[in-house]
Amino acid sequence: MHFIEVILPLSLAKTFTYRISEAEYHFIKKGMRVAVPFGKSKIYTGLVLDVHENAPTLYEAKEIHQILDEKPIATEIQIKHWLWVADYYMCGIGDVYRGAFPSGLLLESETIISHKPDVAVNDSELSDDEFLIYEALQHQSSLKVQEIASILNRKNILPILQKLIAKDIIFLEEEIKETYKPKLVRYVRLHSKYESGSGLEELLMVLKNANKQKEIVLTYFQISASEKKPITVKKLIEASNAGSAVVKSLIEKEIFEEYFLQQDRVLFKGEKSENELKLSEAQENAFNEIKDKFTQKEVCLLHGVTSSGKTEIYIKLIEEYLQTGRQVLYLLPEIALTTQLVFRLRLYFGDKVAVFHSKYSNNERVEVWKQTLENLPKAQIVIGARSALFLPFNDLGLLIVDEEHEQTFKQTDPAPRFHARDAAIVLANFHKAKVLLGSATPSIETYFNAQTDKYGLVTLSERYKNVRLPEVVLVDLKDKHFRKRMTGHFSDFLIEEIAEALSLGEQVILFQNRRGYSPVMECLRCGHVPHCQQCDVSLTYHKHKNQLRCHYCGYSIAKPTNCHNCSSIDMTTKGFGTEQIEQELLTLFPKAKTARMDQDTTRGKFGFEKIIDNFKNREIDILVGTQMLAKGLDFENVSLVGIMNADNMLHHPDFRAFERSFQMMTQVAGRAGRSEKQGKAVIQTYNPNHNTIQQVTNHNYIGMYKEQLYDRQIYKYPPYFRIIKLTLKHREYDKLKEGSMWMYKVLSQNLNLPVLGPEEPAINRIRNEYIRAILIKIPQNMPLGSTKKTIQKMLNSFETVAQYRAIKLTVNVDFY
Q1: Which phi and psi angles does 339 have, rounded to 5°?
Q2: pTM surpassing 0.85?
Q3: DSSP strands (E only) in 498-617
Q4: Strand, coil or helix: 789
Q5: Cα–Cα distances in Å, from 127 out to 117, 120, 435, 588?
Q6: Quick one: CA dihedral 660, 665, 668, 670, positive or negative?
Q7: In angstroms, rounded to a whole number, what is the distance separating the alpha carbons of residues 265 and 250?
Q8: What is the C-alpha separation between 539 and 550, in angstroms, rounded?
Q9: Which residue(s) pair with 304 in the sheet?
């Protein structure tokens, strides 16, 4: 008898054994997918983990339905890494498998299939079964896999569907389709032969009798004298009140040259696209130091101030690794960043760059998966968010984790709750590859590891081309309110600075870490605040949609005209979000073009690109945004950054609040003055003497690091202690209270460790479920594995207590 061990894409900790025939035994290899029955009638795509001859003792092994692959689609190292993730982060291997695989490769009986409306299909190219499915989808907009199976009257239909997906005829339901192409902007410049002094006289002679044309040329000179940026045809026509036909005839006469730019500004400066990259002296030194550190250490931290040109160093390193034929993985914390970076890397590496993240469609993700597996030149460099870590790399040589301090590298839900930076270091170890972590504000753990000689450390303390770091100016809001020098949420100082930047044709970024218009709506008579029905949180007012929304579960109601409690019509809003800042800017600077970048404006696959493109093309003067703005974006025309209120980050009930605030403010400030001129960052705060704010002002990372380290040691937090957080959820308050108390007692009795809890978090009910949290603190010198085993035993016994079985319990290892 022959058997295989299969991982199913379900939240299960164990593998399952299925029976196979002699022929299948010789064909099946580790890492292939098989369609298997599970439960009464469902079919899932399982992954083969092992082929053996040991029958299961507790149940009768079922037969598999069919083999879906001709050769393995996951590599051995990849599966080994998944097993490590499942073990370390205490989750089911099925969770890792489901999280790692693109859903296009995980068809199951519940998947919903639709056909693409605008695809021309040649019937003769389809097999009979494919045609039947195609025909059925003409009559019905979507079908479940199970329904298609009954139409064809056969069980094994997954391969047919795979073929149709590959032919781009059908797609899976969960995709969002969107087409956005960065628009090309039409610019004009004066023909080079007229640029000298004598050329100008000649030009005026040519246009002696053509008054309209002469007028446009003079307007062109006026604009180019006042603004040092490319002139769009649109702007020229608006300023001179002439028609586009006149501009066209000037182009035909070769007085103007037209050219189109998409996003990239490099062309305007007369530089060629930077094929050979020249590093500055400081970058060159850092680059050599990194290579030197890699001879002794597996991991190296590049601590370079904002705008020090870390990306150029990465590019040089990638060049070296590509020559050895090995693959490179470049991880970024935010999908918004991949857009800008892919553009920069494609200038150097052309089509060797593949991109992988969750905003891509199923087909695109499956393609990148296969390119990586086959080690094709197209996917020698993979850029992506944390999910790219699970791709089937063959021979990984270098992993770059940019902005390694970002909390978005840690996945919070669903499982696996892994940290991409830490998991990347383990993956590199399996591949015998090197890891470069880069950040202007490294996380305290990483810097601690570098200081204790676990990682190499390279510091880059000057900005590229010796541009000075932005000058940070603090504005005391208490004082400004007291002297009545505030307009809305803007101090008179910030308004003057914005006005000055706009008059010089420079761009401004304003940062406010709350989306929506106003976080709280309150009745003036009885003090009632509308709350979400399902979560213990006040509703945020969104003026644009005229509704109150819950930012946790999406529940929304129309804006109430009177108080739900006492029917008074005196309702007021408190606090402010990005939407309100945008509104205030319209009244303060009616001529400036403003836009905002937050979760509400960047939905869809190209949400980020639209805004970033427009900002890069200088079609937006002031960009208001949430923390999306803080991450590594590069705009060379931004001279001023304003942080509207620094305090709401500092007073967050979290042991990392000061570290996070320092990182956030330093990163946002670092968006200013990235070319020749020194930028300015204005921080509005009620507490200008706060240590963290002073450390930001003086660009004093080491000061912040030492102060935080001192606190962390006293209060038993990372890097001295590891934290495992257990979260318990249930709809009934009393049952949850009782269950979490039981869990706490068992943990305290069996672990000789600090166990805190069971604590009600600040928001203690989300989606109608009450929440309790328990923290377990494990000192660094204690073996983690055996402690986790003990915890796991207690979790298992918790599940066996009948009255607690309904309580949902999640484990978050290395809680961030």
Answers
A1: -55, -55
A2: no
A3: 507-511, 520-523, 540-542, 547-549, 556-558, 571-574, 594-597
A4: helix
A5: 20, 16, 48, 65
A6: negative
A7: 24
A8: 5
A9: 460
Residue 262 has pLDDT above 70, yes or no: no
Give the closest residue to 345 by CA, choosing from 328, 359, 362: 328
* Sign of the torsion angle spanned by Cα atoms 294, 295, 296, 298: positive
Q: CA-CA distance, 326 to 395, in Å (whole number)?
A: 6
Rounded (10°) CA dihedral 520, 524, 529, 530: -90
| Amino acid identity for residue 551 in this structure | H
Percent over 90 (pLDDT), the chain: 50
What tens digit of pLDDT does each residue of 225-251 get?
776 667 888 888 887 777 788 888 888
Contacts made by residues 134-140, CB under 8 angstroms, sequence distance 24+ = 134/164, 134/169, 134/170, 137/113, 137/170
Which secondary-structure segment (H or E) carries 320? helix 310-323
Determine the Cα–Cα distance for residues 455 and 445; give it in Å rounded to an integer: 11
Q: Is residue 243 within 8 Å of residue 259, measured between CB atoms?
A: no
- The residues with which 112 forms a beta bridge, in sequence order, are 144
What CA–CA distance (Å, rounded) separates 428 from 399?
Answer: 7
Banded pLDDT at 2 (limits 50, 70, 90): very high
**Rounded CA gap, 579 and 592, in Å?**
16
Q: At 19, phi and psi to the nearest 5?
A: -90, 140
Task: Please tell me the distance from the alpha carbon of residue 679 to that of residue 475, in angstroms, as a whole number.
Answer: 16
CB proximity list for 56: less than 8 A, separation 6 or greater: 3, 17
Q: Using an 8 Å Cβ cutoff, are 489 and 581 in contact?
A: yes
**571 is written with which tokens?**
């309702």
Residue 21 Cα distances to 31, 38, 73, angstroms: 18, 19, 21
| Residue whose structure tokens are 């918004």 | 336
Q: List b or e across 437-459, with b for residues whose CB sees 16 or more CB atoms inside 10 angstroms.
A: bbbbbbbbbbbbbbeeeebbbbe
Residue whose token pair is 């993979």? 382
Matching residue, tokens 């109601």: 557
CA separation for the pair 588, 582 (Å, rounded): 10
Distance CA 383, CA 309 (A): 18
| Per-residue pLDDT tens digits for 114-135 | 887 777 778 788 888 888 888 8
Report which secondary-structure segment, H or E, holds 648: helix 647-650
- What the block records as the tokens of 307 is 């705008």
Cα distance between residue 590 and residue 599, in whole Å: 25
Q: Is the separation of the CB atoms in 470 and 678 below 8 Å?
A: yes
Q: Give CA–CA dist 336/235, Å, rounded.
A: 29
Distance CA 305, CA 159 (A): 51
Assign 738 to helix, strand or coil: helix
Instruction: Name the 3-class secondary structure at 305.
Output: coil
Euclidean distance between CA atoms 719 and 712, whole angstroms: 8
Please give the average per-residue pLDDT across 612-633, as a whole number: 83
Handedness of CA 747, 750, 751, 755 (dihedral sign): positive
CA distance 431 to 348: 26
299, 309 Cβ separation under 8 angstroms: no
Here the tokens at position 641 are 């950054």
Which has the closest alpha carbon to 813: 225, 410, 497, 432? 410
Can you tell me the distance from the alpha carbon of 781 to that of 18, in angstroms, rounded to the nearest whole number? 42
Contact in structure between 813 and 724 (CB atoms under 8 Å): yes
> What type of residue is 749?
Q
